[in-house]
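chain below, 198 aa
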Amino acid sequence: MKVFEITALGKPKDRRFKEYSFLGSSDEVWRFIAPDGEGLNGVPFGRKWKVPTFFIEKPLIPKPNFFRTCLAFVCDEKARELAGGPLEMSGEFLPIRVEGEKGKYWIYNITNTINVLDAKKSKWQKTGPGPNDRILRKPSFIAARFGEESIFKIAENRGGRMYCLECSGDPDDGEFKAVVEHHGLTGLDFELVWNDET
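prediction:
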C-alpha cells in the first residue's frame, strides 16, 4: 500500500516546457470560492455555486487535462469521463468557465477528509513554542483505516494537500493514479510520501 501526494504541476511531453499552463482568476473569484482564505479544504462547498471564469495564464504552452488551482485541481471533459469513477467517490465537481476555451471544465473539490494519519510516526516541523505549533512535513498513515476511496485529504494539514492511495496499481480496480496513467491524462504529478512496507 502506497500514498502519493497529488500535485498539478506535471511536466508536458514536449520537453521544451517545464510544466503545463495553469489557470488564473481574478481576486473576486477567489473571494467567492474562499472568502475566509480556506475554501476547498476537504469539505463540500457550503454555499450556492456561481460559475466563475478562469483564464489560461500561459496560452502558448501545452494545455493539460488537469489544471492547477489553489487547494484543488481543474479537470476537462476527457479527464472527467475517463477518471470520473474514482473522482466521484471522493469529491464534487463544481463547474467553471475557461476564457476562450470550448468544452466543459470543473474544479474538483475533494470532500473525503479521513482520519488516517499516524501522528506519532509522522515527521513534524515546529513553528512556535506551543505543542500544536507545528507543520506536517512527512506523513505516516494507519493502513487499517483506509476505505475504498483512493483520493483523500487529512485534517492535520487543514485540507491543504491532496493525497492518493494505491493498493494494486491496477486501473481496473478504480484507483485514481492508475486510471490517470493508463489513459495518459496529463497535468498531474504523484509524489510518493508513504509506503506501508518501509
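The longest strand covers residues 91-98. Residues 77-90 form the longest helix (14 residues).
thats it, cya
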